[in-house]
């Protein structure tokens, strides 16, 4: 039986055939029960696995149609919230090893071992790219994807080779892959129907002047990390020069974990200013000047064992105080949520281990797993942000009974809440649940959900066997 959440995520999808629509639901449920397992393991038998392969290869099935229902469900969750919603944008790559890589495409040129001449061996990586937009509340609860774009390249020469032939700053944005940032911004605004509530957040790759102009045209907001020292004011100065004369407004302390998982603390000197930002020289006749806010956060007295923290943010949101500037920094820090989503998608769902042979089939499977990865992220954050949510929203009656039975009596409360069940799932995934442990993350949640599905299957099989024997 397909669970209610699966029906909600596919009800807006129409593949043109009711059988395909039903197959979409059963496949999503199977992948959600066993994230990270191979397709034969997830679908349990040869008949269901063969049907899944045919589904991915069907000409009437595409990633847009698969995600159509999820986009619709995201819009409903967006409408159910109040206030601003962060639309996190980023790109990720999926790499594959294939005997015929041309059937999938290429992503980039990679450096391998050295040749006898001493030069590094270069080779193109086979794979797909995905640019996604993830809606997240200011508290960090993921509402779902609002847009996604998949593509690969028939060949890849590298950015340096292209720059020898053309000046990328003078190319129209429509002829660049960077257009994906603008496409997703427009699609997200259209989906939500409330562009004024959207805050589109991107890393340094999203520092695109055309994006600023499009956001102004659509009446939406953006918050991006700058990588270009653009011309400012009357065009005779730059953003960096203006900010160098701006006095700090305060010190903000942040705590984070470094690449080794060690807890770190940093003190950031905050500066902000409002200024006119000019278009690139080659595009000044086409685009208007933009009135933007600039926020710089620079670490004070950084340690010698790591690089100093330096964030340079651009936004069209109002910033008139130290509190406003810190609030925007905290919003930008939530951009890490989409990195966690990608990690769940790649490591949790193990998509790079798929053996599908064409780009279209891979894109269809990845699109379906996007819904699974979102739900894992949603469950992980739901207990933190909305602990009063009813457990029945996430778990079935059978799942709750099993989790109660698997939980030590000393930890069992009289009326288990959502936190109880999610921690029980996390323990199935290896979470120790010690008093000093951080809240469970996506890794132990996806492991626990997979193990819970196996336990449920075993319990139901035992029940059926008992009924056959004893009537």
Automatic annotation (TrEMBL):
The record places domain Transposase IS4-like at 289-369
Please name the GO terms of the biological process aspect recorded for this protein, alphabetically.
DNA transposition
* Family annotation (InterPro entries): RNaseH-like_sf (IPR012337), TN5-like_N_sf (IPR038215), Tn5_transposase (IPR054836), Tn5p-like (IPR047768), Transposase_11 (IPR002559), Transposase_Tn5 (IPR003201), Transposase_Tn5-like_C (IPR014737), Transposase_Tn5-like_N (IPR014735)
Task: State the SUPFAM superfamilies in the record.
Answer: Ribonuclease H-like (SSF53098)
Looking up Pfam families in the UniProt record yields: DDE_Tnp_1 (PF01609), Dimer_Tnp_Tn5 (PF02281), Tnp_DNA_bind (PF14706)
GO MF, one term, reads: DNA binding
Which PANTHER family does the record match to this protein? TRANSPOSASE, TRANSPOSASE TN5 DIMERISATION DOMAIN-CONTAINING PROTEIN
Protein's recorded name: IS4 family transposase
User: What is the organism field in this record?
Assistant: Komagataeibacter swingsii
